[in-house]
Design brief:
alpha/beta, Arc Repressor Mutant, subunit A, Nucleotidyltransferase, domain 5, 5-stranded mixed sheet, 14 strands
Length: 413
């Protein structure tokens, strides 16, 4: 994609330096452009005067930047809004064709490839399922399917692809027993460099890799209702439960990229015989636990992945699993709130919307029974992106790297 040309930015456009370092004009311009794009994404559509008010930029500076973004094809102008006091205003929104991201979600039971537009619309996708992930098979899948996804775009649109994002669990080799893979079969993941292998096969795309649950959290923050909260904890329930953390309106990946590893949080798990033991949340609030319940009841565990939008036939195994999961989630939420007074806790996952709704309601009921004296209350709400959150988050990684609000651009040489 053509790099945005430098624009003259007056002194009043420069935000204060958070670290005391000097800013350069190009950095300020990039920051202001990204800030405006982020605001329009959150509000869906904004007029120039509204953006000037929200950013504190002068009307002249706002107009110059937005005209350039429109010329670059990132913004589109809507119909003039009449009937208000003053001059008719023109709302601007993001152009879906303004930029694209490719995403690869490597899950423990399935892999998705998606082509995402600038407004989080999935333009094309491909999927495979498996018993457990094997690196070379996944690379062959990418080589076979990605050209077809890219081929859905015109030549001009292909020039606007910002890169390939990969959302995947970290340390896959640690889950060999839970995935019931042959001993040693997942050990190859210890040395397999996904970014390097994809870069070698697709040299024209920058490759970004992120933890799968953190990627899902990024999708909820950027495209879902999570953007309404300044600070929130995020729980994504897939084959294994994971999480993410948002602080001050920004994703917090942590020093190793593994912040929000909420699946590893210890909780008290109650057994059917009345005994209890301290185990990780992942042993309770994960879909593989439902899979095992289905198998024990004589049903194929693969039904979970073959009918992702309708689990009504799972009946008693599903009901029992939701009770077990809600108990663990409620304990984990109380523990989280003792560390950070989150404004909200968002729960989403690879399940139908009605299951998500029921699980959140059960979790709230269990939370009411936990002693939370001294803790600040937080809203416990449903996520809004759904089972595609990890794939959308993966495809969003290159888009966010290119366009998201980022103080670091103020100091780049």
């Amino acid at each position: 994609m053509e790099e945005t040309a430098s624009l003259p930015v007056p002194d009043d456009a420069a935000p204060p330096s958070p670290s005391g370092r000097g800013t350069n004009q190009t950095g300020v311009r990039l920051y202001n452009e990204r800030l405006i794009l982020s605001l329009i994404r959150r509000h869906r559509a904004l007029a120039k005067v509204e953006i000037a008010r929200l950013t504190g930029l002068s009307t002249q500076t706002t107009t110059v930047i937005m005209n350039r973004l429109q010329a670059d094809g990132l913004l589109i102008a809507g119909e003039r809004q009449r009937g208000r006091i003053g001059q008719p205003s023109v709302p601007f929104s993001l152009n879906p064709d303004g930029a694209f991201g490719l995403g690869m979600m490597i899950g423990r039971r399935s892999c998705d490839l998606v082509l995402l537009d600038f407004t989080a619309g999935i333009r094309a996708r491909a999927r495979i399922t498996y018993a457990y992930p094997v690196p070379e098979a996944l690379m062959r899948f990418a080589e076979a399917e990605l050209p077809g996804l890219v081929g859905r775009l015109s030549a001009g649109q292909r020039a606007r692809i910002t890169g390939l994002g990969v959302a995947m669990p970290f340390e896959l080799w640690n889950w060999e027993a839970d995935l019931e893979a042959p001993p040693g079969e997942l050990g190859i993941w210890r040395t397999f460099d996904v970014a390097a292998e994809l870069s070698r096969r697709f040299p024209s795309f920058p490759v970004h890799v992120c933890n799968d649950a953190t990627s899902a959290c990024a999708a909820e923050l950027t495209f879902g209702r999570g953007g309404a909260y300044r600070d929130f904890a995020y729980l994504y329930i897939g084959t294994f439960v994971g999480g993410g953390i948002v602080l001050n309106g920004s994703l917090f990946p942590g020093r190793s990229g593994n912040a929000g590893a909420l699946g590893s949080m210890p909780i008290l798990r109650r057994e059917a015989d009345g005994n209890a033991s301290l185990q990780q949340l992942i042993r309770t609030a994960s879909i593989y636990r439902l899979e095992r319940r289905l198998i024990a009841s004589g049903r194929p565990g693969t039904d979970i992945w073959l009918s992702p939008d309708d689990w009504s036939k799972f009946e008693e195994p599903l009901d029992n699993w939701m009770d077990e999961a809600a108990d663990g989630l409620a304990q984990a939420i109380a523990a989280m709130l003792s560390v950070i007074d989150f404004e909200a806790v968002v729960i989403d996952g690879a399940f139908p919307a009605d299951v998500r709704r029921s699980l959140v309601a059960r979790t709230l009921r269990r939370l009411e029974g936990i002693d939370r004296q001294g803790l600040t209350e937080a809203a416990v709400v449903e996520g809004s992106v759904g089972r595609d959150a990890r794939a959308i988050g993966g495809a969003a990684l290159p888009l966010l790297a290119t366009f998201a609000r980022d103080f670091d651009v103020l100091f780049k040489e």
